[in-house]
Amino acid sequence: MKKANYVMLGASNLFGDLLDIIHLNNGRLKKIVLNVPDIKREEHLSTKERVARMSYEIETLMIENFSPEEDEKYLIGFKGDQMIPLRSYLKKKFSLKFENLIHPTAILSPSVEMGEGCILCAGVIIGSYVKLGNHVVINRGTTVGHDASLEDYTFIGPSAVICSGVVAKEGSSIFAAATVIERKVIGAGSQVGAGAVCLNDVPPKILVAGIPATIKKHLGTHLIHTGSLMGC
Fold first, then answer.
1. Which residues form the domain of 78?
2. CB-based burial of residue 26 (10 Å sphere; 0-12 exposed, 13-18 middle, 19+ buried)?
């Protein structure tokens, strides 16, 4: 069977996970399109260093040199609402449709509704009648209970537990091993810290942490559409 050609627009520390899911879905990463300069961060390899370790050639180019080709599947390489400017630009200029990337070990109810550009990593379990917006990222080993709703750009870290009826608003993040109990609302742009147990609704743009989770600080303004292509 011919391998599908994937194009990653932007890159981040999700690179390895995305690459694994692409390969396990009989695909190959054809090219990486960078929207910011390829700068090495202290804790991560640069994109070019990662590409150098691959056993096959991957083209790397800047976004101003990008144009779509036939038989390509597209995904954005980083997470959260930081991708909004890049996504808006690509939609407006090229009308791109973004691929959902699902690890073969993920278990989804047939009743799940999903937008585009979602990434579901290894061991994810999604219950019945869950709604996933666009570009939702759910990391390894997370469970999402029935009738939950994860809106656009939501990020869920590894081994989190999202109970039934939870609503995670646009751009919210629930980090590793956190638990959100039934029917709670996580406000737009808010964050639930790693290992927290969230027993109450969380207002927009708030960081909560601890057991039980309590407010730790107010976060910056929730990202809105801009003309910038800067990303993570």
1. 4-94
2. exposed
Token pair listed for 2:
């011919």
Domain count, the chain: 2
Residue 232 lies in a domain: no
Residue 47 carries which DSSP code? H
Q: How many Cβ atoms sit within 10 Å of the Cβ of residue 208?
A: 23
Could you say which of 71, 94, 117 is where a domain stops?
Answer: 94
Q: What digits encode the pLDDT tens for the residues 50-109?
A: 776 666 788 999 999 999 999 999 999 988 988 999 999 999 999 999 999 999 999 999
pLDDT digits over 166-181, tens only?
Answer: 999 999 999 999 999 9
Closest among 163, 206, 207, 210 to 182, alpha carbons compared: 163
Q: What is the Cβ-side half-sphere exposure of residue 33, based on CA atoms within 13 angstroms?
A: 20
DSSP letter at 32 equals E
- Collapsing DSSP to helix, strand or coil, 136 comes out as coil
In a domain, 220, yes or no: no
